[in-house]
Automatic annotation (TrEMBL):
Regions that span the bilayer: none
Record protein name field: Xylose isomerase
Gene Ontology molecular function: metal ion binding; xylose isomerase activity
Alphabetical UniProt keywords: Carbohydrate metabolism, Isomerase, Metal-binding, Xylose metabolism
Classification lineage: Eukaryota, Viridiplantae, Streptophyta, Embryophyta, Tracheophyta
The keyword Zinc appears for this protein: no
Organism this protein belongs to: Aegilops tauschii subsp. strangulata (Goatgrass)
The keyword Cell inner membrane is assigned to this record: no
Length: 294
């Protein structure tokens, strides 16, 4: 990251420290690696853009976390978010992300949707309360995705998520982290999702990646399409930037990669593409006096 000149990093709690046999052991594992991260950060200008709790891979979350029908799972998820939020704050993070990979359903035949949405709203309100209690001034972000791993996720797209926030009185507490690959999975362009968030004053962060148009799943590829980058940056400029949010690639190398240099080349390609998009927007403004967004 230092070689690339990148000053922000993002993390899931379980990506940097493993689960233990108990919650206390799990938190101790996280505390140990967080102290190392704190030390490494002190030697650089790097700090977290955002942190988050990984609430979808462990079998306990098979039916969701904040929408789980099992109260013990709901409570465990709340404790996990509490700890992740505290860790993000401790490391100087500027945002905190909620991505509900299993906050949805496989079938409505055994789902009480109204109750699950109310539980989700209560869960998020509790996070807001804890954020204020610990003095975390960062932005809370929700990252929409229509499906995968569940058949239907409650935060299907930006419009659906905004409706949810309005219904439960949470619009002033959360903004949106738009992921481009998730946008296309929901049947929209990334530009559409960004504009929907922007005009409703909830655009907070961007996962600038892309998917493969030949497949129907979340492939998390580095965005290298300059035309797409130009549209994305037009929304950012019209939004007067993203701060304290920013750009996270949320992309990975393919299995066929065999050279460590690929990791650098991939990130440089993504960074240069977004920079070219911004230059294009600046040129449009210079030539036309406005941003042409269509």
């Amino acid at each position: 990251m230092e070689k690339l000149g990148v000053e922000r990093w993002c993390f899931h709690d379980r990506d940097i420290a493993p689960d233990g046999k108990t919650l206390a052991e799990t938190n101790a594992n996280l505390d140990e690696i967080v102290e190392l991260a704190k030390q490494l950060q002190s030697e650089t200008n790097i700090k977290p853009l955002w942190g988050t709790a990984q609430l979808f891979m462990h079998p306990r979350y098979m039916h969701g976390a904040a929408t789980s029908p099992e109260v013990k799972v709901y409570a465990y998820a709340a404790a996990q978010v509490k700890k992740a939020l505290e860790v993000t704050h401790y490391l100087g993070g500027e945002n905190y992300v909620f991505w509900g990979g299993r906050e949805g359903y496989q079938t409505l035949l055994n789902t009480d949707m109204k109750r699950e949405l109310e539980h989700l709203a209560n869960f998020l309100q509790a996070a807001v309360n804890h954020k204020k209690k610990i003095g975390f001034n960062g932005t809370l972000l929700i990252e929409p995705k229509p499906q995968e791993p569940t058949k239907h996720q409650y935060d299907w797209d930006v419009a659906t998520t905004f409706s949810f926030l309005q219904k439960f009185g949470l619009t002033g507490e959360f903004k949106i982290n738009v992921e481009c690959n998730h946008a296309t999975l929901s049947g929209h362009s990334c530009h559409h999702e960004l504009e929907t968030a922007r005009i409703n004053d909830i655009l907070g962060n961007i996962d600038a990646n892309t998917g493969d148009p030949q497949v129907g799943w979340d492939t998390d590829e580095f965005l290298t399409d300059i035309s797409e980058a130009t549209l994305i940056m037009s929304s950012v400029v019209k939004n007067d930037g993203l701060a304290p949010g920013g750009f996270n690639f949320d992309a990975k190398l393919r299995r066929e990669s065999t050279d460590v240099e690929d990791l650098f080349i991939a990130h440089i390609s993504g960074m240069d593409t977004m920079a070219r998009g911004l230059r294009n927007v600046a040129k449009l403004i210079e030539v036309t006096g406005d941003i042409i967004s269509s």
